[in-house]
Design goal:
With 94 residues, the protein is α+β, with helices and mostly antiparallel strands. Helix content is 21%, strand content 28%. Strand 2 and strand 3 form a beta hairpin. The protein is globular. It starts with a strand and ends with a strand.
């Protein structure tokens, strides 16, 4: 069964260039994530992680600041950790 983790947040406009450079580093380090920007909402980003393909040690949870990648990302997020939202989804059977 396919499972994804969906992470949504808005970045501060003044750090956009730094954030985009950071995402390139993330995409190079983690090949099980895709990052999207809102077409009609600039600076609103979502990450879609294929969580079943990640190493077991890489755990997503609601305390996102405990994982190093979230701690690094939070410097860009407008409103900090309270404004970063994480949801887990499983594929519905067809």
């Amino acid at each position: 069964m396919k499972q994804i983790t969906f992470v949504e947040y808005k970045i501060r406009p003044e750090v956009r260039i730094s954030y985009l450079q950071w995402t390139k580093k993330c995409l190079a380090s983690f090949n099980h994530v895709e990052i999207y920007e809102g077409k009609d909402q600039p600076n609103l980003f979502v990450e879609v992680w294929d969580t079943l393909k990640l190493p077991e040690a890489f755990v997503f949870n609601r305390k996102q600041t405990e994982h190093p990648i979230w701690g690094e990302c939070l410097q860009y997020v407008e409103g900090g950790a309270d404004k970063m939202h994480i949801w887990d989804f499983i594929r519905c059977s067809n």
